[in-house]
Design goal:
55% strand, mainly beta, 10 strands, 5-stranded antiparallel β-sheet, 6% helix
Length: 164
C-alpha cells in the first residue's frame, strides 16, 4: 500500500475547504481526520499520494469515505481522482498509460459491495466500469444463498473485463 505519510498542508487546506461545515456530526476538531499513503510507481515515474477521509467529516455511517489520488512530482501535487463512498481501495497489477489501475470497494450492505475500476486516461483516473460482489442472495427458488466466495455481477462493456 505504500508508506504512511503526513498529508501536505497545501492539500489538507484544499480538502478542508471542501469539508461540509453545516453537517452536524462534522466537528471542527475532526476536519483534519485524513489518512495518507505515498505509493512508488517505480524508477523514473512520479509517485502517487492516496488520501482517504476518516471520521464523521469524510465518511458515511456505513464506513464509506472520500478518497483522493494525487500525483507527486518534484514537490508539486496534481489531483488525479476525487471520489466519495469508498471503504477499501487498492492498486492492481494491470496499468493504463503508465499508472496502475485502481479498484475501489463501497460497502452497500452487510452482504454486498459495489466495486469500481478506475484507469488512468493520460491526465486523470476515470471510471471504466465495475461489478457487484454479493455474499448473500436469493436463488431461483427464493431461498437465501450464503457464500464465502461472492457472486460477481459485472458492469462492463463487452470488451472490458475484471482486472487480474
Amino acid at each position: 500500500m505504500g508508506k504512511e505519510v503526513h498529508v501536505p498542508d497545501l492539500i489538507s487546506d484544499e480538502l478542508m475547504a471542501d469539508a461540509p461545515s453545516d453537517y452536524p456530526p462534522c466537528d471542527p476538531k475532526d476536519r483534519n481526520d485524513l489518512g495518507a499513503h505515498e505509493i512508488s510507481l517505480g524508477a523514473g515515474r512520479a509517485n502517487v499520494l492516496a488520501i482517504q477521509g476518516r471520521g464523521d467529516c469524510f465518511c458515511s455511517p456505513t464506513g464509506n469515505c472520500e478518497l483522493w489520488i494525487y500525483r507527486v512530482r518534484h514537490g508539486a501535487y496534481r489531483q488525479l481522482l476525487a471520489i466519495g463512498t469508498v471503504q477499501i481501495f487498492g492498486f492492481v497489477k494491470s496499468a493504463t498509460n503508465g499508472y496502475p489501475d485502481l479498484v475501489a470497494w463501497s460497502h452497500g450492505s452487510a452482504t454486498d459491495y459495489e466495486v469500481r475500476l478506475f484507469r488512468f486516461n493520460g491526465h486523470r483516473y476515470e471510471d471504466s466500469g465495475g461489478w457487484d460482489e454479493e455474499y448473500e442472495y436469493l436463488d431461483e427458488s427464493g431461498e437465501v444463498v450464503d457464500v464465502k466466495k461472492p457472486r460477481i455481477i459485472p458492469h462492463f462493456s463487452s470488451e472490458e473485463q475484471i482486472p487480474k
